[in-house]
């Protein structure tokens, strides 16, 4: 006759094996050493700083308006007969 097995312990052992397999996959997929993370962050910071230092500052350019110099110098419209009322 075969050995008596507790099914709960068997299922738990299967879950543990599956979790170990997933953890190995995740270590390969996502795992990086702390020193690698620090080096990556340091390089990223240097690159951002280099870009900021090379940035050309924006110099505002005056916008053109509808007013021409001729239109700005002419007085507003005067009525033909200023002395008479309407």
How are the SSEs placed, and which strands pair?
Elements: H1 7-30, H2 34-54, H3 69-73
Shape: elongated
CA radius of gyration is 40 Å
Mean pLDDT: 82
Count up the helices: 3
Structure description:
The protein is an all-alpha fold. The chain has a domain at 1-51. It is built from 3 helices and no strands. The chain has helices at residues 7-30, 34-54, 69-73. The longest helix is centred in the first third of the chain and has 24 residues, at 7-30. It starts with 6 loop residues before the first helix and ends in a 13-residue tail after the last helix. The mean pLDDT is 82.
Quick take:
The chain has 86 residues and is mainly α.
Keywords, please?
86 residues; mainly alpha
